[in-house]
Amino acid sequence: MSAPFTARHIGTDAAAQRQMLDTLGYDSVAALVERAVPASIHAQPRTTSDIPAAASEDEALRELRELAGANRTAKPMIGLGYYDTHTPAVIQRNVFENPSWYTAYTPYQPEISQGRLEALINFQTMVTDLTGLATANASMLDESTAVVEGMLVARRACKGASNVFVVDADALPQTKALLRHRAEALGIRIVETDYAAGLPDGDEVFGAFVQYPGATGRVWDPSEVITAVHAQGGLVVVAADLLALTLLRSPGSLGADIAVGTTQRFGVPLGFGGPHAGYMAVRTGLERQLPGRLVGVSQDAAGHPAYRLALQTREQHIRREKATSNICTAQVLLAVMASMYAVYHGPGGLRRIATEVAQKTEALATELRGYGLTLASDAVFDTLRVHVPGDAGRIVERARSRGYQLFWADDASVGVSVDETTTAADLAAVAWAFGAVEEPGAELAVADAQPLAAVADSLHRTEGYLEHPVFNTHHSETAMMRYLKQLADRDYALDRGMIPLGSCTMKLNAATEMAAVSWPEFSRVHPFAPADDVAGYLAMIEQLETWLAEVTGYDAVSLQPNAGSQGELAGLLAIRGFHRANGDHERTVCLIPSSAHGTNAASAVLAGMSVVVVACDEAGNVELADLRAKIAAHADRLAALMITYPSTHGVYEHDVLEITQAVHDAGGQVYVDGANLNALLGFARFGDLGGDVSHLNLHKTFAIPHGGGGPGVGPVAAKAHLAPYLPSHPLSQRADHAGGFVFDGGPVSAAPYGSASILPISWAYVRMMGAEGLREATGAAVLAANYIAARLRAHYPVLYAGEGGLVAHECILDLRPLREATGITVDDVAKRLIDYGFHAPTMSFPVAGTLMVEPTESEDLAEIERFIEAMIAIHAEAHAVAAGKWPASDNPLVNAPHTAQSVVAGEWSHPYSREEAVYPVPSQVRTKYWPPVRRIDNAYGDRNLVCACPPPEAFA
């Protein structure tokens, strides 16, 4: 019989844990954690559990196969921003299913992230070329949230005082719903209009939104509307289909200020709604307004070009309540796939695919018109809206009987969308569903159809795009495979070694957990498919929601938020909705400890709240006296307290029950940030701490990989009284979603269940761990963090600790004394760790000049010891500098990291040896990771902003 999954997931076995416990002076892991976690919040043993006993890996896969089998395989032709697509096998195998790509972390250490940064700058170049705008970011969460962010950019950039934003009546329904929900909290008035009649009369507008092509498929020229908005001083956001833009004029050429959309149809599976990479591009002058991440070109210490995150990177952490967005992530893995789809096909291949889509669409349109049916628009790219008064339901069911999903727009109209997978036989079957052909077995004639036949000549694209060599080189599978391998080799991911990042939990993403993500029964499912066609998905989602509710102590869970920041926002909007339903419109103050994640404050502002900061004491705990004073000062206006538990400083606060009670007594709600659930799971529950609502990070605690900085899932869990205000969705498949489908919540993402295709990962994790395994994982994580703290405390002070000198699942090493004694900075230590074969811990968060270390439960003792050895050796190197062995300006730390070229080419003039530079410990000789660039100059990159592919000669 094979070993239980817990033994595969948890890196330290009984013998290793015994050794670690002996160092700490505890008899058992349980005794250690129970000492660290306040006794007042220990979870009571449960007599029954909704979480079944741990399954083996084979059993879990069999159960997932049963769930997948309950999803009806159909041909999705619903459209609305989601399309079936062919993922090139070379991309699926070498990116989507490759741990070198999906286990990488956010590229905050750019020297060891050059591969994915190049892939992202390819993505940005692809987007700017196709949209005709100056600068694109490194991806958004999805199209609808990108539209909202575009609206917020327009509001910030507009110099007028208007609060009116005009929205295209032909926009996607999920986007319109999300705009309404998000705008209401910010005091923005949405005015929906049919642009055929021009801009609405009345107030001036700060911006307008155009869908191009429209949800009904209509392709029209919005340039007059854009000019009219500009005349009022407003900005225009255009949501554009990138595949259509290979044939149609770009938004930039039409005068748009901002372009947004999705790159899903560039080889990224449907996945029941996600994850997919949205995009945003802006005209010149708006670069610094861009939300999210932006990759730029800088140079390293040798003057060689190098990539890094530019400008406002992590600005929501730095600026907090003054941040312009709460988005702290991207959809990197999916952006990489989409960019590589463009690299693989090239401009000619993309145009050929788009032309075939348009040709097939026109062939179907001709057939339906010939049968006497009327279309909402004859000028189309890939979507038809067919007028069938009183007959829509019957036609949709006829199509479904043959395995096709169409969009039932209303009783009088049906939508049909064509994609690159659509065949002539598919077109004939759809025409049969409408009654236009007698038998569905034939194939519709396509060859003679004229693509974009009714689209005005002035809208046909004449601009070039994707002319950079990267999009015109790697078109054979051999070339593509080697390019992807080359990029992966430039990166450091979890498949190389430990990534000990505090606040991030880079744990094992087991292959068994990942397996189902590629299955077509999960990956090729439309998010708006009929409920009967997605029974397996809905059953899996319901099970996962139930399990998450149990382990957190809440009553309802929504899996819709597709990032932790969006889960924060959803929870705060639920609190806002609850107060408003009770008539407490004045409750708008959100108390946030000074130690909190920066996204907390940004999310509160986006939920229409005012942030009041609560002080923390020297131990990192919320200062009770200041909390009580702030509560008293704002009692009648208090909406919520946001508190992270364990705290952002990595300690278990003993006064948490007193804190939450004080907020409740004043009529407020308690939001417990779930970022650190990895230190609590199985030992205590947020709901028992006094929490009313929390978001969780499935990409941290529940094993979904970070994918180079995304995807993620940030579900929101709440007590029963907040459940009606959790996210809802106009196209959701079930009425009981999130504890009650009353639409008080409104959507926070484009799809009803967010990034649903990666939920099988967390489902499998919980199913194979079981309740007891989850508890064991927490214990192993807390043990590893405390072991590192104990071993390194003599070299680096541990900044915060709770009772018994214990930390939670992470510890903060204070490097400020080292800098004072030696001149060596936290940056020097982080870069030197690369030479030792490590990704650095989290730098200068939550305290400047520190490293926050989280080893996670999946690391074994040998890897933990290797990290400890490296940190002790670096400490000795720093003191060697202070002792005069090496000059302060020329030593292994300030020159780190060292590339192969730097130690091989030219004269070696440094006062330390080549061996000391690149082989600081003997184990490096056989396992060396070679960084591709030396230390990168961040300031140079911001002064000389370049955010698109540099010319090949730059690398000569």
UniProtKB/TrEMBL annotation:
Pfam families from the UniProt entry: GcvP2_C, GDC-P
GO molecular function: glycine dehydrogenase (decarboxylating) activity
Oligomeric and partner information: The glycine cleavage system is composed of four proteins: P, T, L and H.
Function text: The glycine cleavage system catalyzes the degradation of glycine. The P protein binds the alpha-amino group of glycine through its pyridoxal phosphate cofactor; CO(2) is released and the remaining methylamine moiety is then transferred to the lipoamide cofactor of the H protein.
HAMAP family: GcvP
Cofactor: pyridoxal 5'-phosphate
Top EC category: oxidoreductase
The protein's Enzyme Commission number: 1.4.4.2
Entry-linked InterPro entries: GcvP, GDC-P_C, GDC-P_N, GDC_P, PyrdxlP-dep_Trfase, PyrdxlP-dep_Trfase_major, PyrdxlP-dep_Trfase_small
CDD domains (UniProt xref): GDC-P
Protein name as it appears in the record: Glycine dehydrogenase (decarboxylating)
Sequence positions bearing N6-(pyridoxal phosphate)lysine: K700
Keywords (A to Z) from UniProt: Oxidoreductase, Pyridoxal phosphate
Originating species: Microbacterium pullorum
Residue ranges of domain Glycine cleavage system P-protein N-terminal in the record: 8-434, 471-739
Family that this chain belongs to: Belongs to the GcvP family.
Every Glycine dehydrogenase C-terminal domain range: 777-898
Domain of life: Bacteria
Reactions the enzyme catalyzes: N(6)-[(R)-lipoyl]-L-lysyl-[glycine-cleavage complex H protein] + glycine + H(+) = N(6)-[(R)-S(8)-aminomethyldihydrolipoyl]-L-lysyl-[glycine-cleavage complex H protein] + CO2
